[in-house]
């Protein structure tokens, strides 16, 4: 069964880094790129968001708002926040909003793969 993954970040370089860091064991995946929170939610409503890698600071709609809307929708999407805001308050806030994990930027392949393993995607 295909796993639908959304990579939401306003930086094309960051989106590409996350995509390249995905473990090769995730072979049957469809990746959707979102440049902002609105596009990330559009992907969710289109049924293309089993897993979402979500930046917090994006134009049009930030990652906090996306998390709130997913929580309100009682979404089963597994969200991993990837952000440069590494303050403990930010991490606590996203976890309280339902994120499965938090990764500080810059993301490394090793850390992303560890978090993917930790949240049970492998």
In short:
The chain is α/β, with parallel strands linked by helices and 122 residues long. It has helices at 12-21, 37-45, 63-72, 88-96, 109-118, and strands at 3-8, 29-34, 51-54, 78-83, 101-104.
Characterise this structure.
It is a single chain. With 122 residues, the protein is an alpha/beta fold. It contains 5 helices and 5 strands. It has helices at residues 12-21, 37-45, 63-72, 88-96, 109-118; strands at residues 3-8, 29-34, 51-54, 78-83, 101-104. It has a 5-stranded parallel beta sheet with strand order 2-1-3-4-5, with helices on both faces. α1 crosses α5 (109-118) and α2 (37-45) runs parallel beside α3. The longest helix has 10 residues, at 12-21. It is globular.
Characteristics:
122 residues; alpha/beta; Rossmann fold; five-stranded parallel beta sheet
Whole-number mean pLDDT: 95
| Percent of residues in β-strands | 15-25%
Looking across the biggest beta sheet, what order are the strands in?
2-1-3-4-5
Number of strands: 5
- Which CATH-level-2 architecture? 3-Layer(aba) Sandwich
- Overall CATH class: Alpha Beta
Question: CATH topology, what is it called?
Answer: Rossmann fold
What is the alpha-carbon Rg in Å?
13 Å
User: Would you tell me the structural class of the helices and strands?
Assistant: alpha/beta
Helix content: 25-40%
Keywords: Phosphoprotein
Protein name: FOG: CheY-like receiver
Pfam families: Response_reg
Modified residues (4-aspartylphosphate): 55
List the SSEs and their pairings:
Blueprint: E1 3-8, H1 12-21, E2 29-34, H2 37-45, E3 51-54, H3 63-72, E4 78-83, H4 88-96, E5 101-104, H5 109-118
Parallel strand pairs: 1-2, 1-3, 3-4, 4-5
Helix pairs in contact: 1-5, 2-3
